[in-house]
Structure formats: C-alpha cells, structure tokens
C-alpha cells in the first residue's frame, strides 16, 4: 500500500508518519518512508536514523536533473544505471532502490527526495518531479507499506504526486486553517479518484466536537489522537519515537483494511 500523509504545516504529519511506520513494522511489514518535505530536518531523528543522501544526487544533483528534465533528455540520461533506466519507465521494487540513498532502522527504511541546503539554490520543483516518478513506478508487495510524508499544503496535488497512491491520509490539528483545509483536500482527492481519510491530532475534549463538525463524513475519521506531552518533549529534543500508542495501532489496522 502507498499512502500520502498530508496537511498544513505543524499539524503533526511527520510525527504520525514516524509512529505509523514503527507500528506497521511491529505488525511485520517492511516500511518505506519517503521524506518529501524539503524543509523538514526532524523526520529522520523521529525514526532513529541518519538523514539519507538527497535522492536527487542519484541524477547528478538538483540543478543537473532540472536542466535534463526541462530539455526533455531524461531517456538519454538514464543510461547511467539499470535502476535509473527503470525509474522513469518501468516498475521497480523496494529492493532495487540504491542502498546508498537509504537509511535503515530494522524494518523501516527512509529516503529523502531532497533538502534545501543553501540560499538561492532554487525551488523544490525538481525534487517533487522525481518523487512523482518514484511513487508512480514503485511497486509494493502485500507485506510492504510506503508512507509519503508530504510538504505542507496542497502543492503535491498540483504536481500529480498523489495520482499513484492508494490512500490519502490528512492530519488535522485544532486550527481554523486546518479545519478549512479538510474540505479542499477531500475535494482534491475525489477529483483524482483517491480515498481521503482523516486523523484528528493534538485533540482535547474542548476542541473535539468542533473538529468533528468540520468533517462532512465522520466515518472518514480513522483516529483521534490526544495531546501527548511525552511526544511533544521528544519532538523538542529530536529523539526517536519508540512509544506504542493504542490510537496509532488502531489507525494502522484500519488503514490496512481499506
């Protein structure tokens, strides 16, 4: 199963992605997490791994990959390796991803589409284009899960990254912006024929009724996660998230049934 994890900035996308990855691993799954947020430098720490090399380096770096794509010369460039040739035109499996671009923690693998490392290096367009091709041709087995931790907002829909996933999971926090965004993401998901589900995050009993009212179909709410001071503390310290949370366990089981 291939899953988009999306939402507004600060809603908890990376935290939920990391907790879900660990939960799927406990369930016996092999898990690939794709870090597709060029400004997020914390997901790898939550997973307990080193930040992997930017996947754009496989194609000669962001600038070279961008110029190649703009010139329409991809099919000439991908003679670099067997995997590169398959990357743009044929299905490939988790086992075929070049090992030097993966960080591992037991059954959890992390790749990073790329990061912004310095000022004036350009936009994230190339990284998003590479991610689109990656998820389009990646094939996962029955015992494998791919989680795409997206950048904030809805740009990934505009770039077509979500066209090849099986399910869209939006993380909703108690903010006006997040509640309004639920309807837009529901609409965008429906427009490409992808099911959209919701996780209400950082919830307390005072805000829960209002958050539920923002969801047109409350059967699409797969989990309600309360504010957790230990998770918040580990987030501040950049510590690995190793706790088992009942709501995440239930969420993982519900996702696999979809």
In short:
The protein is of the alpha/beta class and 258 residues long. Helices cover 38% and strands 17% of the residues.
Topology at a glance:
Blueprint: E1 2-6, H1 13-26, E2 30-35, H2 43-47, H3 62-71, H4 74-77, H5 82-87, E3 103-105, E4 108-112, H6 125-137, E5 144-149, H7 155-158, E6 167-172, H8 176-191, E7 196-203, H9 208-213, E8 221-226, H10 229-237, H11 246-256
Parallel strand pairs: 1-5, 1-6, 2-4, 2-5, 6-7, 7-8
Antiparallel strand pairs: 3-4
Helix pairs in contact: 1-11
Q: Describe it for me?
A:
The chain is an alpha/beta fold. It is built from eleven helices and eight strands. Helix 8 links the parallel strand 6 (167-172) and strand 7. Helix 1 (13-26) packs across helix 11. The longest helix is centred in the C-terminal third of the chain and has 16 residues, at 176-191.
